[in-house]
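REVIEWER CHECKLIST
Item 1: Sequence provided? yes
Item 2: Single chain? yes
Item 3: Sequence as submitted:
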Amino acid sequence: MKIDPTNSQPLVKKTDSNSARPNLGQLTIDSAESSASPVSDRVNISTNSRLYQRAMELAAMAPDIRSEKVADLTARIAAGTYKVSSETVADAIIRKSISEFV
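Item 4: Structure as written out by the authors:
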């Protein structure tokens, strides 16, 4: 097989395979060079990888601020009913400080 660096651009096609593994998608990479027997590689993406990708997409779409919680805290602070334990704040400060060194 002769390698021609000027004509080595692979063509990438996405295909769906319903044969052996119905939950897996496939990418087929065919050589740009025309020949009697085309050479192709296949990449199978597992179901777990697809689920992980979908979870990451959903997490990215989630808002950074939970509006209902902020509204509740704002109302409690305004009404003077929001009380913070000084021990809880001190524990959080100490835990944060220690975690930076570990």
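Item 5: Key structural point noted by reviewer: Residues 10 and 31 are 5 Å apart (CA to CA).
Item 6: Recommendation: ____
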